[in-house]
Amino acid sequence: MKVTEQLVSAVQAQAVEKVASPEVFLAGQTVVVNPLTSYHDSLIGLMEKQHEQDVLPLQIQRLLGATTESLIDAVARGVFPYTVVDSHLVAIESTYRDDFTVVGELPGEREIAWAVRTGQSELLNRLNAFLKKHNRDLFFNVTYNKYFKERKRIVRHQGQRLRSTDELSPFDPIVRKYTESTDRDWRMVVAQMYQESQFNPEARSFAGAQGLMQVLPRTGQQLGIQDLYDPDNGIRAGVSYLGWLDQRFPQNLPLEQKIYFILAAYNAGHGHVRDARNLAQHLELDPDQWFGHVEEAMLLLSQPEYYRKSRFGYVRGREPVNYVREIRDRYIGYLGVERHQAYSSVE
Fold this sequence. Notes:
Layout: E1 2-3, E2 5-10, H1 22-25, E3 30-33, H2 38-52, E4 59-62, H3 68-76, E5 82-86, H4 87-94, E6 100-105, E7 110-111, H5 121-134, H6 138-148, H7 151-163, H8 172-179, H9 186-197, H10 217-222, H11 231-246, H12 255-268, H13 270-282, H14 290-300, H15 304-307, H16 318-346
Parallel strand pairs: 3-4, 3-5
Antiparallel strand pairs: 1-7, 2-5, 2-6
Helix pairs in contact: 7-16, 8-9, 8-11, 9-16, 11-12, 12-13, 12-16, 13-14
């Protein structure tokens, strides 16, 4: 299958014509991509063309681990201006949403392929035989039409699925109650709650953390809250602890960044996050940016040459890094659910 890499933005108030020269159109613009994708390499090539043409280079925002769908969601919400998506993925996404638009294509076509390890000749031969057998046959066409062509069926199925999820969790009213007087998005708290307990109010960790937000009993006592297995108490304790952590960080940190530091501190402890910020600054990274900066320093704090020089010592850095990323991606997904529900109600 041959595809093109398409430049995607949020739907504008006025229709935008596709650009003929992406290197000129993207001069000085920011494009967000996962650095471990072909999109990143293509943007590097585009920057080289910009240099040759004496054009102001684009800026690449790298989000390691981000999925294509989550980046489309972020662009649609206005978090980033542009991202790059393969044309076949654009086709799939376009079957059930209309909050993004294609504004241009990067030069050239790409071929989608499976890759196997060197030496796995048997697997390679089986894959090639499968492709040769099914390329453009009945099975191929039925499957292709199922995912790329039948827009009405997909939209109808999506609407039915989303109508069964009017709430993100059984505890949405409680979360809303305790976040309405804060600057915290209740949906982010729900995303975190799922990460902590999978919405099980009886959850208990090996370390003794309890309830929906997995708060330690001693933390609950410090907050004046007991019986953390009670959903109301557990959520109140979790939101209160988030507020306490909020006060541990500089108040001039942008809210959209501070929330990630707070989440990391909830998981690993405020001291380790402080160490990671200090290390990031020492490494000439941005101590006020979590993704791609402080998270990289956090990963290093599991290595002796780094944690021995830190105040709070060793931390399994991979845990808070994954914790923050998974909550962020789930939160973006929740925003998408609400958007699809709005589309369904209009239809």
